[in-house]
């Protein structure tokens, strides 16, 4: 059996849960007695079942889940064939209490909103379209850091909200927006309290993807 793990340095920021990880069994029945073949068949079936389970990732907006802050978490479910898979489920905390429910809306993707509590851990109980189930852990929360939320619902403007974690040292925050490696917007919060908001005309940016 070979275990294949693949990742980029950027993916290491999210921990092992973001890595591609799959077991591949290679074998031959030539010259093997029936008892060995049966054992090998069971191992191969187990590997196939494991490989057939869609990979589901939960990705907090802004990078990290900050305790006490309202956070949007995107999710995506991808099958072994590389295609998105429909998924739904519930989020529970470390006490087993249900926090919220969710369901993918497009190609196995969607988003949830939660307020993580300090010291709590969260799990997603998943159900896929074929009836199979799985449970995965959400990224851990931190007491320090920043939560960034980008509201893109208005046709003409973007609304950005940055929230400081409860134990984050106070200080000014620099907000930079770039597209294709070119900076199109920059602002500093000044004396930063816990919240910083900005309203930015979309006309400042070219068509495409903008990174904040």
Detail the poorly predicted runs: 44-49
| Strand line-up across the major sheet | 7-6-9-10
Q: What is the chains' assembly state?
A: single chain
Average pLDDT score: 86
Order of helices and strands: EEHEEEEEEEEEEEEEE
Distance between the termini: 43 Å
What portion of residues belong to β-strands? 35-45%
Secondary structure tally: strands: 16
Largest sheet: 4 strands, antiparallel
Shape estimate: globular
Helix content: under 10%
Structural class determined from secondary elements: mainly beta
- What is the count of helical runs? 1
Structure description:
The protein starts with a strand and ends in an 11-residue tail after the last strand. It has a four-stranded antiparallel beta sheet, with no helix packed on it. With 212 residues, the protein is mostly beta strands. It contains one helix and 16 strands.
Can you tag this structure with a few keywords?
212 residues; mainly beta; four-stranded antiparallel sheet; three-stranded antiparallel sheet; 1 helix; 16 strands; 9% helix; globular
Question: How are the elements arranged and paired?
Answer:
Layout: E1 2-6, E2 20-24, H1 34-52, E3 55-60, E4 65-66, E5 70-78, E6 87-93, E7 98-103, E8 109-115, E9 122-128, E10 133-137, E11 141-142, E12 146-151, E13 157-164, E14 174-179, E15 182-188, E16 195-201
Parallel strand pairs: 4-11
Antiparallel strand pairs: 1-2, 3-5, 5-8, 6-7, 6-9, 9-10, 12-13, 13-16, 14-15
């Amino acid at each position: 059996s070979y275990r294949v793990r693949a990742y980029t340095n950027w993916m290491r920021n999210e921990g092992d849960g973001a890595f591609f990880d799959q077991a591949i069994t290679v074998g031959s029945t030539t010259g093997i007695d029936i008892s060995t073949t049966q054992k090998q068949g069971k191992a191969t079936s187990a590997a196939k079942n494991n490989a057939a389970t869609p990979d589901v990732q939960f990705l907090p907006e802004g990078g990290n889940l900050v305790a006490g802050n309202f956070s949007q978490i995107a999710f995506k479910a991808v099958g072994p064939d590389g295609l998105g898979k429909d998924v739904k489920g519930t989020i529970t905390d470390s006490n087993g209490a249900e926090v919220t429910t969710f369901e993918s809306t497009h190609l196995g993707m969607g988003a949830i909103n939660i307020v993580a509590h300090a010291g709590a851990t969260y799990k997603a109980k998943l159900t896929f379209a074929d009836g199979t189930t799985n449970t995965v852990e959400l990224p851990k929360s931190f007491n320090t850091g920043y939560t960034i939320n980008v509201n893109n619902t208005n046709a003409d403007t973007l609304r950005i909200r940055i929230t400081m974690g409860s134990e984050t040292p106070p200080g000014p925050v620099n907000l930079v927006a770039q597209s294709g490696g070119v900076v199109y917007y920059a602002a500093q919060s000044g004396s930063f309290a816990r919240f910083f908001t900005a309203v930015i005309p979309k006309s400042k940016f070219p068509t495409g993807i903008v990174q904040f």
